[in-house]
Amino acid sequence: MKGLRNLPFRVWAIVPLTIIFSAAVFRLTWNIPYSVATVSKVVLGLAIAVVVAGYFFLLLLIRPSLMEKLKTRPVRIGVTAVVTAALVTLTIHTIRFLPSPEAVLIQSKIMAILLLAALTSVYPIILKYTWRVWRREAKS
Q1: Domain limits at 111?
Q2: What is the pLDDT of residues 37-47, one digit of tens each?
Q3: What is the DSSP letter of 69?
């Protein structure tokens, strides 16, 4: 945790993350005009919200002065909401992607199923950890 207090390290961590998350939001926003179905627009909107929220959560982790805010109830509710939105978005996307004509390659289908399986299996762990820590701190 000492490394996070070093300003050059924080800048080195924040700049690439900003570029990566900006590119992801730009790419997702770019798809909105080309999506015809309302469900596609909802999935893209949820995906953009999850990416932006994930970026702000990572900024909270990088800034040592904001570490105490991670222990508050609103942040825990926010983390739960973001992970739930990610799971819903990925589920809708996978259900719509698998039978579509765009999923020609078997590798694409396997990757979609593996991503959904990974998030589905880690979801209960995230919920359990998030709320167990919060309950433990509420008791003390």
Answers
A1: 72-140
A2: 787 888 888 88
A3: G
